[in-house]
Amino acid sequence: MDRITLQEALLLISNHFCDYERQFAFIGEVMRDSLPHWSAFSHAFKSALDFMHFVGLDQAPVYPIENDPCGPHRSSLIDALYIVLGVIKRCTWPDDPDRASRGGFVVGFTELGNPICRNPASPHVIPLLPHILSLLRVLNELFKAEAVAGLSEGYRNIHTMLEHEKKVLMGVCAIPSDPLDPSVKKPPTPFDKMQQFMTLLYEGCYHMMGSAGPSLGRDLYQLHGVSDALINSAFACLDDLPDYRLRPIVRVFFKPFVYSCPPAFYDTVLLPIFAHISPIMCQRLTARWTYITSLYESEQLNDEEQSNDTQEVLEDMLNRSLTREYLDVLKVALVGGQIGPENNVNNAASTATNIASDVTMDAEEHSMDGVAHTRAAQAALLSDIISDLGAKLLRNPATTNYILMTLLSALSWNDGTCNLKAVNVAAPVMRFLAAEQLMDANKAVTAFTAVLRGLQIHGQHEANQAGLITLGVQFYELLRPKFPTLTEVLQSIPNVSTADIQKFDEKIAVAPVKGNKVDKAKKDLFKKLTAPLVGRSMNQLFRHEIKIANLPPMPSQKLKNPTADIIDTNQNAGLPSLFQTTGNK
After folding, report:
1. H or E element that contains 173
2. Are residues 292 and 410 in the same domain?
3. Locate the Exportin-5 C-terminal domain: which residues (predicted)?
């Protein structure tokens, strides 16, 4: 780690050369020793079983660790990976367009006149992509049944989460201990070393691919067949991956990859990838939420099976985090947005340290969730503007239905944060579909029913209720004139007033739609209509309503000249008498 950190520092310094040829030669010197290793690894990346034999997963753990014959293989693989990762993350072109132009980094201009810069690391990294993608494919294939069956007995549970990952995800604070106490600090076992190696390898690969999009730019996206190569490697065997392994693919790799893609490559790169991943994610998340909801409703979580309870809660937290992160990807693709500081290519911290710490990335993610729902952020997200990529995805028959169903289903999944994220994206999506004549009666009823179901689940929370009420009125304004069956959906609400529904219809028919603005009168009436659906949270069930009677006003005696009376009193009494109390008399 020390050597790689020093190399990254030198790479950061090389960014100030402002000379493409000089920096290109320097990067070649840094990567010279690692290039032969990638060629030697090619035989180990042919299949999952070959990789397991190369790193020693199909062999019994060796004691002591230093005598493991596969130890040098794992060390050289991590070393080669970290060098390439450091080059991708740290090397870039000058920020100043003039310096970039003088240094030979500018190779063209966009339609808007912005310079297109080339990264001096691209010629060194691009030839290694076939080996890197083969490694990604093999890592995903490790979770297939035949690969799991090939594990030795000592490494049978090697694919489980690290303990500190579980603690961070569950919100369990580690108890401080004396680092010098020999009874506390135990030497790592071969299983611990192998588990840490697999975790760092997996996280490092997807950090490398996540940084490749922003760093390499067009040199990566313009490669012929890059979408098929990624589908068959990074996005292969997604159905076999557990949630904690799928999260880095979505958050660390896919999100910055989508964000950094130039518009010229939307059709050739992103559309095929979304066509592959959107049905998988829609079906997976729907099945997981159905399972977890049924689990809680059947009250299978009981005190007698505490270990099982912990595992079920862990799965619940993983599912929530994965859902939030995938909704963030959809938001970036459909309406645009930021990718967060964790994907910054020019981050000055050490890559190896970043990977070790990003294994536990949940605390950072939850803090981001809290910032994302400020009033200003919600106002920006409720904009009715769909990005160019979003328009292509919503017009594409292979992606539009799966994206729409994911957003509508997230409105009623039992997670308040997912609900807020879905509300902020669903409004512009529905406006676009209605404007493009891409809605039918079935979709309209499904969308409006999803809002009502979301109110039933989350209506007791003020923030969620406000967003859902606004979304419901927007849906009704857009869809009711063309699909009158939405009135029947309102009539299905228990104890709803027919007169109120008729009044609501009249307001919708009379008042025109004003962009994404919703009249307060419409929202109040819709809130009244949906009130029977909204439950009450536990802390509100037995609350005693405070009622303050209208008290009569207190009479006031007005002085003619109060300022003059106070001055006269002070002059007659003198300063000592002002502080005289009755006890001193």
Report:
1. none
2. yes
3. 3-541
